[in-house]
Design goal:
The protein is of the alpha+beta class. Helix content is 21%, strand content 19%. It has one domain: Peptide Methionine Sulfoxide Reductase, Chain A (2-Layer Sandwich), CATH 3.30.1060.10.
Length: 213
Amino acid sequence: MKLIAALISGAAAASLAALAYTGSLPQDHGSDRPSPTIKLAPTQFQARPGVKVERAIFAGGCFWGLEKHFRETPGVTATAVGFIGGKTKNPTYKEVCYNDTGHAEAVLLEFDPAKISYKQLVERFWQIHNPCTLNSQGPDFGDQYRSGIYPLNDSQKAVAEQSKRDSAPLFKRPIVTEIVTGQTFYMAEDYHQQYSEKTGRACAIDRSDHVGG
């Protein structure tokens, strides 16, 4: 599956309307290779040259909407949607939807840690979906719509687990978000990438379990 990564210019990071495709994607070489748990070959997913970035992976319902909300978050430099946590390799969207592959729809982020921390991204994640509904999000039902955080290292895992505990009082019901390491992220088809920007369609946030709505 080919990677289409729309890079977010620093000046426009807070405004979805101003986001644009910029630059080209370099080839995958040597020490610049992505984590082995992220399947992006043959091209490499990375943000603007000269910007030191880190990565994060989240799942929370339809990946079109989750990607949109993260792309509006200052400090996020690039995004891509795909699948994680399943039992088959290189799944297609139709296979995930209809063939019980076990994958969740997910969003891979690159972010500038000088502008936003991983902890702040996790806090943002709680705000833009409902982490209290099991295998569903709003009108969407199925395990592909489950809530999940997929840490890429031990530090991220510790931050995610602590944030989950700290955020419990913010919700009316227990948080059911899974936190799982060592999972493989597969890119979704091109037409799913930055889908909300291409079509103008957006997914509403289910805040029914957020204290205060």
